[in-house]
Amino acid sequence: MASSLFREDPSHFSTGTQERAQVCPPARFPRTAPIWRHWLNRTWAWLWDLDEDVSITPNVSGLDRVKGDFNAALWDLQSFRAHQVRSSVDRARSLRELWHLRSELYDAVAAHRGQMVADDRVSALNAHFPVRISIGATSQRLGRTSSW
Fold first, then answer.
1. Helix, strand, or coil here: 66?
2. How does pLDDT run across 43-84, given as a tens digit for each residue?
3. Domain range list for the chain
4. How far is 38 from 51, CA to CA, in rounded Å?
5. Rounded to whole angstroms, how far apart are CA atoms 124 and 69?
6. Residue 82 and residue 107: Cα distance in Å, rounded?
7. Within 13 Å, how many C-alpha atoms sit on residue 9's CB side?
8. 10 Å Cβ neighbour count for 130?
9. What is the dihedral of CA 83, 86, 88, 93, to 10 degrees?
10. What is the pLDDT of residue 107?
11. Interval 118-133: pLDDT, tens
12. pTM (2 decimals)?
């Protein structure tokens, strides 16, 4: 049941239902490889006298791509506030930090281009973050309740 509450693509929602998509922050700590795999790779590298461990190379291309999308949302702004948001995006170390920067990006774009443009740009960025579906209050009243 919990897996049906989390969706990656918000485009499957119809406007006539009681369901509402809510963008939520990613997990605070991303999943890491098991410790036994790390020890096995290190032992293998030691046994074969390998110079460097190939499993330690980080996968930063995904985070860099998201940062590029954030900076692309600010491409036509040359204000001091936009520069501050750009530098905050460049310093971000995780998707969770970028999730919190969406409001600052919205404020910078809305101040110079309007709320409709800011809504469009932030909704395009929401594709990088998980979506949670909350069902309306009318469809949750399936069980009995007592009114004491």
1. helix
2. 877 777 666 545 554 555 688 899 999 999 999 999 999 999
3. 2-140
4. 16
5. 9
6. 9
7. 3
8. 16
9. -160
10. 95
11. 999 999 999 888 877 7
12. 0.55
